[in-house]
């Protein structure tokens, strides 16, 4: 099972027991439909839930579900027993509550109009509960974003909720230029403290991920989104998503450059006799790799494709001649 599938199943399992307790006896097909999966997948989920329970995991401590009956009658009713402890309100420790408050405050800035009310209501309940329970040791505050960044996020959130296109001014750091493009915004996402816009870019005629702090201007257009039905990207596996059009290059890294394999999204790694690494990397812009190779000099060498290695050497020779001429 892939990482994304495992995360999806975990999300369903966390919601499944309270759902079944609230609903009582429910047809398997209806449970599957409510969770957006097939009956066969829901039966697999129920088999996993059947093995969950309180520490000790004895016969009286596991959740009881009529899995065997459902296996013989897929159209039958789902019944859950011995899960009453899940109905008790969740009790959070001070550190757990603080972590949730920090996460919710960070989420508040990037939430859409539709979800903002839920986030604010949950945050208010947590803050009230922690204030009543004990005096907090620290005053948790998430730094306010710069006004330009907040304005860009608000405009993009408005475009998403109103199902409209947006015109962006976007700084492309590899070329050090600002480009103008029309996009169909899909979602605002968070990763490592940065906000990203997941959108269909009509300039590239492909899906793209834009760092919101690199957006120099946003104009919400009157035109509706032309690609409205894409699901938001899952950033749990990281930001990088290889394209079939990317160039795959093989690089040799010196022992001092081993950190490169942890910092950049390499596809494969292999040890070299001198303690360095050989890695493969998918590259969408050769100019970015040329700059990288020039920056790190002998610590990074392009092995394949050979013509790219020759271009790196040619650019390095030109740079050296220019430096000598101006010295």
From TrEMBL:
<feature type="domain" description="WYL">
    <location>
        <begin position="154"/>
        <end position="220"/>
    </location>
</feature>
<protein>
    <submittedName>
        <fullName>WYL domain-containing protein</fullName>
    </submittedName>
</protein>
<dbReference type="InterPro" id="IPR051534">
    <property type="entry name" value="CBASS_pafABC_assoc_protein"/>
</dbReference>
<dbReference type="InterPro" id="IPR043839">
    <property type="entry name" value="PafC_HTH"/>
</dbReference>
<dbReference type="Pfam" id="PF19187">
    <property type="entry name" value="HTH_PafC"/>
</dbReference>
<dbReference type="InterPro" id="IPR057727">
    <property type="entry name" value="WCX_dom"/>
</dbReference>
<dbReference type="Pfam" id="PF25583">
    <property type="entry name" value="WCX"/>
</dbReference>
<feature type="domain" description="WCX">
    <location>
        <begin position="248"/>
        <end position="320"/>
    </location>
</feature>
<dbReference type="Pfam" id="PF13280">
    <property type="entry name" value="WYL"/>
</dbReference>
<dbReference type="InterPro" id="IPR028349">
    <property type="entry name" value="PafC-like"/>
</dbReference>
<feature type="domain" description="PafC HTH">
    <location>
        <begin position="8"/>
        <end position="127"/>
    </location>
</feature>
<dbReference type="InterPro" id="IPR026881">
    <property type="entry name" value="WYL_dom"/>
</dbReference>
